[in-house]
Write a structure and sequence with these properties.
By secondary structure, the protein is α/β, with parallel strands linked by helices. A nine-stranded mixed beta sheet has the order 3-4-5-6-9-10-11-12-13. The chain has a two-stranded parallel ribbon with strand order 1-2. It has a two-stranded antiparallel ribbon with strand order 7-8. Helix 6 links the parallel strand 9 and strand 10. The protein starts with 6 loop residues before the first helix and ends with a helix.
Length: 390
């Protein structure tokens, strides 16, 4: 059983522009091998050529076939004629007072998505997008107010990591010692879109990212966040094997139906039944339950007690997220005292309950604030507040 195609996907054109040359970025090793053979590479040489091209692109960050000096000149010329190394284009880059970086990226067809880099002590996390817009219409999420335009390709997903490594100057330099400290040490598929509605491209992109001879991020450094596309959860365990986060946000179907409308298709019990098998299937660590704290909606002591009862038996941690406001949002953030009281109940029940520190709020880069469709959505929080005051 595959995930259903939503109405938005059916009615909005998604055809990518035809390209004269095939983009190598985002091809898995098998796909790259097939493409090189089709371009005339002898089958006996194909595995070696894949390894060479792969290392140049994903280890060294090279974008020009002419620089691939361990390949013969005529082979490099063939590659340049038949293929390209193409990444999304950075339209704007904003840097928050806390160091968070938000990138507005233009992809094929002129569409735009956002990616966010969050530096922390001892690690750096990149939040990547998987779709232009989103179909889920979660009522607390700014991104959900932007209609789905199309799925991102595997290359556009991998390209977000490569562009940020460019911006941070993270590629190794030939002839110099390798810097073992990774500036982008973790990836979270928590940007625009529902990753499990773009399963094949997300899977292929993560295979490229996890490959040990290139970008080399382990599956335990990658977290995929889903609102609960139940039929694809087992596939995620088997075909990707990364860590899993669930946009949970409510402890009753009545409230979750409003906050996360996908709950009407797969309710809380159906979702939890699928999650109970996930750690076993993927040999994964704990599942993260994301829970945005909305004043008077889902933040009572009763909610906290229901939550720990619901997830009993699932290796889990609860990530409490103070609501990040956006213009016209129908909710308010729970008070700090209420969030701490909720966290205390969860913690005393035996679950880790970290409260996520909002990052990048001043540039609208915090959780639930990403949106690229309107000029208003691109304005900073400070600009919006100033306009409202004026």
């Amino acid at each position: 059983m595959s995930a259903p195609i939503t109405q938005d996907v059916l009615t909005i054109p998604r055809k990518l522009p035809d390209a004269a040359r095939k983009n190598i970025v985002g091809l898995t090793r098998d796909q790259l091998r097939d493409a090189l053979i089709e371009a005339g590479t002898p089958e006996k040489q194909a595995k070696m050529r894949v390894g060479q091209v792969w290392q140049w692109i994903y280890y060294w960050g090279v974008r020009d076939f002419a620089q691939m000096t361990n390949l013969a000149k005529d082979y490099r010329a063939m590659l340049a004629e038949r293929f390209e190394i193409s990444l999304p284009e950075i339209v704007t880059r904003q840097i928050s007072t806390d160091g968070t970086r938000k990138y507005l990226l233009r992809i094929a067809g002129g569409h735009e998505v956002e990616a966010v880099y969050i530096p922390e002590e001892g690690r750096g996390t990149l939040c990547v997008s998987s779709q232009v817009g989103c179909t889920l219409t979660c009522s607390f999420c700014h991104t959900g107010t932007q209609k789905l335009v199309r799925n991102l390709t595997a290359g556009e997903i991998v390209g977000q990591l490569m562009l940020v490594r460019d911006d941070l100057g993270e590629w190794p330099e030939q002839g110099k010692p390798k810097d073992e400290q990774r500036l982008v040490s973790n990836i979270v598929l928590m940007g625009m879109g529902e990753p499990l509605y773009n399963f094949d491209n997300v899977r292929d992109a993560m295979r490229v990212v996890m490959d040990g001879e290139g970008l080399s991020l382990s599956r335990r450094r990658i977290t995929l966040s889903t609102s609960g596309v139940v039929p694809e959860i087992a596939r995620t365990a088997e075909e990707i094997g990364c860590l899993l986060a669930i946009s949970f946000h409510a402890t009753t179907d009545e409230v979750r139906d409003k906050l996360v409308p996908i709950n009407k298709r797969w309710n809380i019990q159906t979702l939890l039944d699928a999650l109970r098998d996930y750690p076993r299937l993927s040999n994964s660590e704990r599942i993260t339950f994301e829970y945005v704290m909305l004043d008077g909606v889902n933040d009572s002591d009763e909610d906290a007690r229901r939550l720990v009862k619901l997830i009993r038996g699932i290796p889990a941690k609860i990530n409490l997220i103070p609501f990040n406001p956006w213009p016209g949002a129908p909710y308010d953030r729970s008070s700090w005292e209420r969030i701490e009281a909720f966290a205390d109940i969860v913690y005393k029940a035996g679950y880790a309950s970290p409260i996520r520190t909002p990052r990048g709020e001043d540039i609208m880069a915090a959780c639930g604030q990403l949106k690229s469709a309107t000029e208003r959505g691109r304005k900073s929080k400070a600009q919006i507040d100033a306009e409202a005051a004026g």
